Amino acid sequence: MCESAHHMKKLRDNLIQKHTPLPIISLDPIVAEIDSYMKLDVVCVDVLEFRRSSGDQFYHLKRLAQIILGIPVTSTPSEEVFSTTGLILNAKRTALAPENVGKIQMIHDNYELL
């Protein structure tokens, strides 16, 4: 019985070793940057302060944050576009081509710059 148990344990260890994924060693700088960031043990409430203090250590993550955090959290800009388009397309202007509606919309939105 002891020899059978030893054989089963060895078989189990071989199976575990065979099916355990190897650590991913990547030469990709973005993956390395994310891995470096995930290993940080920093408690920082102010995101901007963390970005200033980390400098250019996390360049790709900084760019990603700029893109994501630049997205407006409200639908107000799109609602303004629909409202203005509703004013442009009235009963007398139903035959306007889409590109002309776009041009009128741009003039309306940028009128103060003229």
From TrEMBL:
It comes from the Eukaryota. Residues 33-110 form the HAT C-terminal dimerisation domain. GO terms for molecular function: protein dimerization activity. This is HAT C-terminal dimerisation domain-containing protein. It comes from Rotaria magnacalcarata.
